[in-house]
Amino acid sequence: MQLSSDPQGGVLSRAGDAASLGRLRQRVEDHADALVAAFYDALLADEEARSFLHHSVVQERLSPSLRRWLVDLFAPGADLAGAAFAARQQKIGEVHARIKIPMHLVMAGAAVLKGRLADALASDPAAFDLLRLAGERIDHALRLMSQSYEKGASNRARLDEAYRLFSLDQDIHFERESQRAGLMEWSQKTLFRILASGGVEGAGALSASPFGLWIRHRADFLFDGSPHLTRLNAAMERIDAELLPRFTPGAASSDLAGPLEALEAAVDEVAFLLNEMFQGLAGMEGGRDPLTRALNRRFLSSILSREIGFANANHTPLSVLLLDVDHFKRINDTHGHPIGDEVLRQVAEAVTENVRPSDFVFRYGGEEFLIVLVETSLRQAATIAERMRQALATKAITASGLEPFHVTVSIGAAEHGGHPDENYLVKEADDALYRAKQNGRNRVEIA
Amino acid sequence: MQLSSDPQGGVLSRAGDAASLGRLRQRVEDHADALVAAFYDALLADEEARSFLHHSVVQERLSPSLRRWLVDLFAPGADLAGAAFAARQQKIGEVHARIKIPMHLVMAGAAVLKGRLADALASDPAAFDLLRLAGERIDHALRLMSQSYEKGASNRARLDEAYRLFSLDQDIHFERESQRAGLMEWSQKTLFRILASGGVEGAGALSASPFGLWIRHRADFLFDGSPHLTRLNAAMERIDAELLPRFTPGAASSDLAGPLEALEAAVDEVAFLLNEMFQGLAGMEGGRDPLTRALNRRFLSSILSREIGFANANHTPLSVLLLDVDHFKRINDTHGHPIGDEVLRQVAEAVTENVRPSDFVFRYGGEEFLIVLVETSLRQAATIAERMRQALATKAITASGLEPFHVTVSIGAAEHGGHPDENYLVKEADDALYRAKQNGRNRVEIA
Fold first, then answer.
1. What stretches of B271-367 adopt beta strand conformation (E)?
2. Which of A224, A342, B101, B290 has the largest CB neighbor count within 10 A?
3. pLDDT tens digits for range A55-68
4. Is A76 exposed, middle or buried (0-12, 13-18, 19+ CB in 10 A)?
5. Inter-chain contact B158–A163, Cβ cutoff 8 Å?
6. Residue among A298, A283, A305 nearest A161 (CA)
C-alpha cells in the first residue's frame, strides 16, 4: 500500500519537515539508552518472550540493533518512502518470523517506546508535532515489518505442518515397536543395576536414554498437543527425580520392595501412554471421512475461503448446499448404527454422482453434507439440489438383512453475495436448511 | 503481556483521565464518518485489499462496524485492561485471519485514522495529551488483534498446506488421465459442431467445461504457483476469447483451415502443459532425499528452530555438524555421476549409523550433510564427529566395476550459544567446516 503517495495527504505528511525531524532525532538520541532498556524490560517481563530471548543475547546483540534502528528512523536523510528503508524493515520482519518473535510482542515493545518518548517530548513547545511525527515513523516501520513477518510466519507454519505430516507418514508401526523396545531396554538395564548393588548408578536417567531423547525431540511433532504426551513427560520426570533416587547401594532387598513396585507401575504407565498415542494416530489424519469418502470438514475453511476469493476476483457465482438426512436418528434407533452408516454411505454416493469433478463434497456433521458448487448461481444450485433430492427419494437403499427402503433429504441452498467471511455463507445455507426442515422435510429451500 | 499493569508507568497510563477521554470521544464522534471513509478509501486503493473487499460489503457492513469500534474505543466506561475489551479485539483478529485481511493492511488503515484524527485535534489546547491518548488506545487494540490474527493465520496456513499435501496424495495418475480425457472430450465436441455448421454455438467455452472448471478450481492447489499453470490459463483464455469466435456458422470450409490449425495448436499446448505439470509432481514433495534417505533440507528450519526453542527453555545443550565429502568433484569427474551418487549414499549410511534415533540428518547440499545433535555439548559433538570421520576414512566404498576405495570427510561442529536465529548456528558450523578444509581436510574443527 503506497500510503506515502496517498493524494489525500499521506501518513508521512510531516516527514519532510526537517526542523522538527532534527529536533526529534536529538530527543531520541538523548533518551536512546533508556528507551531501548524500557523496550527489552517490557519484553523480558513477558513469559512468551522470555522463552526465546536470553538476557545475554539481548545485551550483546539485540539492544545495540534496536538502538541503531531507532536513531536511523529519525535520521535527517532517511527516505521512508524509499526502497532501502522498506528493505531494512522487511528484513527485520523476516528475521522475527524465523526466530519466532511474534509481531504482537514487537507492537507491545513499540507501545512502550512511544510512551517513554511521549514523556520525553511533553515539555517541548512543539510536543504535538514531534509526537505525531514519531508515531507516524514508528508505525510506518512496524507496518513494513508486519508485511514480511506475516509472509514468513505463514511459510514457517506451512513447513511445520508439512514436516508433521511427513513424520506421520513414516512407518508408524516400526517406530512404535522401536520406542517400546527402547523403554524396555532402559528398564531392564536399570533393574540389573539394582539387583547387583541395590543402587542405580551408571544406569542413567530415563529422560537421557535413547527412548527419553526420542520422546523429548520427536514425539511432540508426531503427537502434536496430545494430553497423553504431557502425562508421559510427567511420569518420566517422576521416575528420574523421585523414584530412582530411592534406590541406594547396599540397601537390604526387603527395603527394595516398595520402590520397585512404584517403579514398575510408573514404567507401565509410560508404556501404556506410548501405546495409546500411537493408537490415536491411526486414521486420525485422513483427508477424507473413512465412511463416506467425502472430504474431511477440517479442509472446508481452506477451500471455501479460496473459492470466495476466486468468486470475488473473477466475478463468478458460487453456491453452497447443506444437506441433511431426514429422520436419521429414527433410522439409527430402529435398525442400529451399522445400517445408519450404510445409509450415509449411499447418500454420499448419490450426492457425489450429482456434482461435477470441480465441486467439493464435505461430511459436515453426523448426517449432514456440505457441497461447494463452483461457478454456480443460486438458480443453478437449486436445480442441482432438486435433482439430488429426487435421486435420493427414488433410490432404494440396500442393507443386508433388510428389505430395500427409502430415505429423504432436506437441502438448504445459498449463493455467495460478496461477504468475505465464509461462515456467513454457510450460515445462510444452514438457515435455508432449517426452513426446509420446518416446512415438512424432503424439500429444497433457498436463502 | 500485561502492559496495563506495568509498574513503571504503563502504556495505558492516561486511560483514567476522564476529562481528556470525554473530549477525545467528542472529537472522534464529530469526525467518525470522515475517519471511517478515509480508512476504507485507503484500503480500497490497495490492490491486495480490493481483491477481497467489495464496495457493497464495505458500505453495508464494514463501515458501520468500524465506526462502532472507533467510538467504543473512547467510551468513558471502557475498561481497556478488561477481558471484554480484549475478547472483542481478539475476535476481530480472528475474523481478519479467516477472511484474509492481513494485519499490515489494518495497520495501514489505522495509520490513516491516526493522521486524520491528528488533523482534527491539532487546534485543541490539549492536543498533545489527546493525540497521545488516541495513539495509546488504537495501538493497544491493534496489538490484541494482532495476537489472535497471528494464531488464526498460522492455523489457516497449516490447514492450507495439509489440504495441498492431501491433494497430492490422491491418485495422481488417475487424475491426469481423467483431465486429459476431459480436454479431448471438449475438443471433439467442439469439432463436431464446427463440421456440422461451421460455427461453435452450443459447444461452450473451454474454461466453462468440466476440464476448465477443474483447472480453475483444483489445479492451483495441486500445482501451487507453477509457471506452467499461468501459461495454461492464458492458452485457455486465448482459445475462448480469440480462437472460438473465428468460427462462424455457414462459413466455407476453405475459410476454416487457418482457424482450425490455430485451435489445434492451442489445444495441443494445453495438453502439453497439463502433462508437464503432472510430471513435475512426481517425487517433488518427498520429505527425504531419494538418493541418500537423509531428511530434505526444506524441513531444516522447522526442526532446528524447534530444537533451539527446546534448548533455550530447558537449558540443554544443542550442537550441529556440517560434513562435506573431500574432493567430491574429483570423484565425480573421474568416475562419473553414478559412482558419485554411490559415494553419497554410503557416506549418508555411515553418518546415520553414528547418530541416535533422536538426532536429525539432512542432505544439506550436493555433497554436504547437516546433522542436528540434540542435548549434545560441543565436546560431545566433537567426539561424535571424530568417530564419523574415522568410520568414513576406514570404510571401503564399494561400487560396481571399481576396486573398493576410500573417501574422507571434513566436519565443522558448533554449539548453540543462546542466539535465537538458527541461521547463526549453521553459519558457525559452516565457518568451522571452512577451517577444516583450509587446514588440510579429513579433519574436524570446532567453532
1. 318-325, 360-363
2. B101
3. 777 777 888 999 99
4. exposed
5. no
6. A298
Contact of B117 with B134, CB cutoff 8 Å: yes
- Asked if A146 lies within 8 A of B104 by C-beta distance, the reply is yes
How many Å apart are CA B94 and CA B298, to the nearest integer? 29
Give this complex's ipTM: 0.74
Query: Do the Cβ atoms of B155 and A159 come within 8 Å?
Result: no
Query: How many Å apart are CA B119 and CA A347, to the nearest integer?
Result: 62
Do residues A413 and A446 make contact, with C-beta atoms less than 8 angstroms apart? Answer: yes
pLDDT at A128: 94
Q: Is B447 helix (H, G, I), strand (E, B) or coil?
A: coil
Looking at B170-218, list the stretches that DSSP marks H as alpha helix, in order from N- to C-terminal side.
172-197, 210-217
Per the CB < 8 A criterion, the answer to whether B292 and B342 are in contact is no
A395 burial level (CB within 10 Å; 0-12, 13-18, 19+): middle
Q: Kind and range of the H or E element at B446?
A: strand B444-446
Which amino acid would we find at residue B206? L
Q: Rounded to whole angstroms, how far apart are CA atoms B104 and A117?
A: 24
**Residues B176 and B281: beta-carbon distance below 8 Å:** no
Kind plus residue range of the DSSP H or E element containing B68:
helix B63-73
pLDDT in tens, A258-316: 888 999 999 999 999 998 888 877 655 567 887 888 988 888 888 898 888 888 888 89
Would you state the pLDDT for residue A6? 39
- Name the closest residue on chain B to residue A42, using Cα atoms: B3
Report which of A378, A376, A374, A362 is spatially closest to residue A322, judged by C-alpha positions.
Answer: A362
CATH number, domain A3-165: 1.10.490.10
- CATH code given to domain A297-446: 3.30.70.270
Task: Provide DSSP, A355-374.
Answer: S-TTSEEEE-SSSEEEEEEE
**Three-state DSSP state, B9:** coil
CA B256 to chain A, closest CA, distance in angstroms equals: 32
**All cell numbers assigned to A269:** 504407565
* Residue in B99, B131, B287 closest to A132 by CB: B131
When CB atoms are compared, the residue of B119, B165, B356 closest to A210 is B356
